[in-house]
Amino acid sequence: MLPSKTQITYGCLFIIASIALLVITFCFSLVNLAKTQESADLVAHSYHVREIIQQVYSDIRDAERTQRGYLITDDPVYLKLYQKDVSNAYQTIGQLQHLIADNPRQERNLSRLAQLSQDRVVGLNQVTAARDHFGLEAAKQLILTKQGMNKMQAIQDQVQIMLNEEARLLATRRNNLDHYRKIIYTSSIIFFLIALTPLIVGLVLVRLEIARFRALFEEKNRYAEQLEQSNQELE
Q1: Long-range Cβ contact pairs of 142-147 (< 8 A, separation 24 or more)
Q2: What are the residue boundaries of the structural domains of the chain, listed by start?
Q3: pLDDT for 206
Q4: Number of alpha carbons in the 13 Å side-chain half-sphere of residue 154
Q5: What are phi and psi of 102, to 5 degrees?
Q6: Count of other CB atoms within 10 angstroms of residue 141
Q7: Which residues 6+ apart lie within 8 Å of 103 measured at CB?
């Protein structure tokens, strides 16, 4: 058995080591929690980007519908709605440009989508102008060229390209999120078990030493009582 002072010293050192390991575990968990939160934010960002990409196509389709309503009815209300839809499409493209500013590949894709959208709006404006100046038949002839339909198909294809790219990023970011979650869970258990071992050893050593001191104290009390009794007998 270790000497008294050595035993209690080792016990205290084991306890201090355990506390240090717990502090390290806490700091390590904080770092991984920050990375987990960052990955979660990126996952949410990808979902938001996908939503805005789809909104661009939706805005252009809305512009087509309201323009068609104006062509058929010659109602200025539809013309105002058409202009509003075009404005919304440009605003959505601007919002998307801000969201993907950190992704050069998506920036190139968006540049292509923005150009296709601009071309489609120009075509819609040409049909609207033909309707205003030359009548519905002139607008119809422009529509029959199917240039607008081809542009919309190109826009839809470009939107799908951007969605596919964002889906790839989303899969990577979700994998990273799962990875950091597993690291936190596994490392926390391992570090906790490692820190628990010296803590138990230290507490056992200290408790044994306390028990030894208590036994010595009780033995001294018994000796003192016996000595007092002997003195009384002598008197």
Answers
A1: 147/123
A2: 36-199
A3: 64
A4: 17
A5: -95, 10
A6: 12
A7: 169
How many Å apart are CA 163 and CA 169, to the nearest integer? 10
* pLDDT of res. 122: 93
Residue 88 CA: distances (Å) to CA of 29, 125, 134, 169, 212: 44, 16, 28, 27, 83
Question: Which CATH class, in words, describes the domain spanning 36-199?
Answer: mainly alpha
Which tokens sit at 39? 């990955």
Taking only the tens place, the pLDDT of each residue in 129-164 is: 998 888 888 888 888 888 889 999 999 999 999 999
Of 184, 153, 136, 132, nearest to 25 by C-alpha is 184
Contact 32, 187 (CB under 8 A): yes
Distance CA 149, CA 43 (A): 34
Tally Cβ neighbours within 10 Å of residue 89: 24
The reported pLDDT for the residue numbered 23 is 73
pTM over 0.70, yes/no: no
Alpha helices in the chain (DSSP H): 4-73, 76-99, 104-134, 136-144, 147-234
